[in-house]
Amino acid sequence: MLVNIASSVIAADAVNDKKDLYPHWNELIVGAIAFTILFVFMWKWVMPAINKLLEQRRQKIQGDLEKAEHARREAQSELADYRAQLAGARDEANRIIEEGRRTADQLRKDLQAKAEREAQATVARAQEEIRAERDRALQELKARVGAIAVDLAGRVVGASLDEKAHAKLIDEYIAQVAEGDGKGSGGG
Questions:
Q1: Would residue 14 count as lying in a domain?
Q2: CA nearest 137: which of 183, 182, 184, 177?
Q3: Burial class (CB in 10 A: 0-12, 13-18, 19+), 73
Q4: What sign does the dihedral 70-72-75-76 (CA atoms) show?
Q5: Any domain includes 172
Q6: What is the C-alpha separation between 138 and 131, in angstroms, rounded?
Q7: pLDDT tens digits along 99-132
Q8: Residue 139: is its pLDDT beyond 70?
Q9: Which of 151, 142, 130 is nearest to 178 (CA)?
Q10: CB of 138 within 8 A of CB of 170?
Q11: pLDDT tens figures, 5-35
Q12: Into how many domains does the chain fold?
């Protein structure tokens, strides 16, 4: 085994000459020709295709950016419109609420005025009814007092009075009672 290692080291020394390190002229010329052919091929067909793909990609990206910018502007415009509509709706809602308040206040005032008118009408009707009742009571009182007065006068005088005298006595008595009412009558 040592023998194998030693022979490989000697063979490696033989390959490591200076002339083996540098390429030969014929290899350099073939390499240069192959490089030139490859370069021309790349320059003529591959690079234009790559440039075309890159240009298409650039245009697509540019178009997407322009669309995105347009969409952003449109969204901002719609947002501004929405905010304006929202502010308008708030103003309209506030106006409607205020109008409702005014309408409610007016309705309340109208109802109060109507209730006051109805109350005044009720009071006026009650006063009229009181007056009518008082007048009726006075008429009834006149009739009763007249009858009582004639009856008493007939007893006192001892004779009955005729209708004219009776009516005259009633009117006089009522006049006295009416005057007495105004003065705080005592009786008579």
A1: no
A2: 177
A3: exposed
A4: negative
A5: yes
A6: 10
A7: 999 999 999 999 999 999 999 999 999 999 999 9
A8: yes
A9: 142
A10: no
A11: 656 655 555 556 677 778 888 989 999 999 9
A12: 1
Q: Which two tokens stand for residue 19?
A: 């002339």
119: left (phi over 0), alpha (psi -120 to 50) or beta: alpha
Residue 90 DSSP symbol: H
Contact between 144 and 170 under an 8 Å Cβ cutoff? The reply is: no
Instruction: State which residues form the domain around 82.
Output: 22-181
pTM of the model: 0.38
Residue 12, domain member (yes or no): no
- Beta-carbon contacts of residue 179 (< 8 Å; ≥ 6 apart): 185
Which secondary-structure segment (H or E) carries 133? helix 47-157
Q: Which residue has the higher pLDDT, 161 or 111?
A: 111
Considering only CA atoms, which of 175, 188, 183 is closest in space to residue 138?
A: 175
Mean model confidence pLDDT for the chain: 83
Query: What are the Cα distances from residue 12, in Å, to 78, 133, 162?
Result: 81, 154, 185
Number of neighbouring beta carbons within 10 Å of residue 150 = 19
Note whether residue 123 is domain-resident: yes
